[in-house]
Write a structure and sequence with these properties.
By secondary structure, the protein is mostly beta strands. It has no helices and 11 strands.
Length: 156
């Protein structure tokens, strides 16, 4: 059975091979990412804004990477919202800077990162482990996102 989708906004899908994200752990234990975005072959306006978002379920961080014509990574790309990298994914969004402002022109979602020392891309876990304060519970399976996650009590 073929699934048909309607794309009235003509949003482009960014291919994962064009979006390379690596994460490095510093001496202080902070997680910092670098993103290599190859957007030249897409038909996007050069003044369109580029954002990279790191997310895990309800936690997310947004980083402004400038415009398609002049990509400028922010000076701080520290993932301060995440104590662990388990289950963290990335998305890249390109939005219009002309009227209508903020219109989503292109998106790449569910992008896995690789650690700086890895040569092969990180495999996606079937059931990613996410630390959470669960009170008296030790663990439970969450179905909040499109895929399940194993929530483990972070206070134990």
């Amino acid at each position: 059975m073929t699934v048909r989708t309607l794309n009235y906004t003509r949003r482009q899908r960014l291919v994962r091979d064009d979006l390379d994200i690596t994460v490095d752990t510093t001496n202080t234990g902070d997680h910092v990412f670098e993103a290599t975005l190859r957007l030249a072959e897409y038909e996007l306006p050069t003044d369109a804004r580029v954002f990279v978002e790191a997310y895990r379920q309800t936690h997310w961080m947004r980083f402004d990477f400038g415009t398609v014509g002049h990509l400028t990574p922010p000076s701080s790309r520290r993932l301060s919202e995440f104590d662990t990298l388990d289950g963290v994914l990335f998305r890249v969004r390109v939005t219009s800077s002309q009227e209508p402002r903020g219109l989503l022109l292109a998106e790449g979602d569910r992008i896995s990162f690789r650690a700086r020392e890895e040569r092969v891309k990180k495999r996606t876990s079937l059931l990613p482990v996410v630390p959470r304060n669960l009170g008296d519970e030790i663990c439970k399976v969450s179905y909040e996102d499109n895929r399940p996650a194993l929530l483990v009590n972070s206070t134990i």
